[in-house]
Amino acid sequence: KLNLLFVGRFVNNKGINILLKAARELNAEGYADKISYILAGAGPLYKLYTTNFKYKNVTYLGNVLGEQLLDLYKSADLFVLPTIFEGMPLVVLEAMSYALPVIVSDTGATSELVDGSNGYLIKRKDAAALKNAIIDFCGLNQEQKNHLARNSYNKAKNYFSWGRVSAQYIELFL
Fold this sequence. Notes:
Layout: E1 2-7, H1 16-31, E2 35-40, H2 46-52, E3 58-62, H3 66-75, E4 78-81, H4 90-97, E5 102-105, H5 110-113, E6 119-122, H6 127-139, H7 142-160, H8 162-173
Parallel strand pairs: 1-2, 1-4, 2-3, 4-5, 5-6
Helix pairs in contact: 1-6, 4-7, 7-8
């Protein structure tokens, strides 16, 4: 079973409605027993989603911190952020640092983080594109999934670690 993870605030711009639409459609197409959706976070729309979007394979955890959050990243197979607008989402880098392939909307600096080598960059506000990326990921063999995972980890470590970023700033100003 694929463990898909979302971590973020329950607000309009995070695209949770897009994720839940894709989940509903995938469930209707026979994926309900193949994909588990874990949504961690809280915010003004939390009650709306937990009340109105109840699916047997969707779990809402509320606020998750510390060791519990680390355990979520470690147990996930895929990280998803169908955001509508972002700058540079640190949650994507967090997921990559745990060697998770990522599906993220093409907005802000997300194309600097995710490409075909470590996940899927999808069109904003496009539930069909998200659904298709999830289906594509499900169809990969374990070696292909591991390849995406390694690339995520290596990209985070080699280009976005604090040591690397600070060295780039020093080079820039010297």
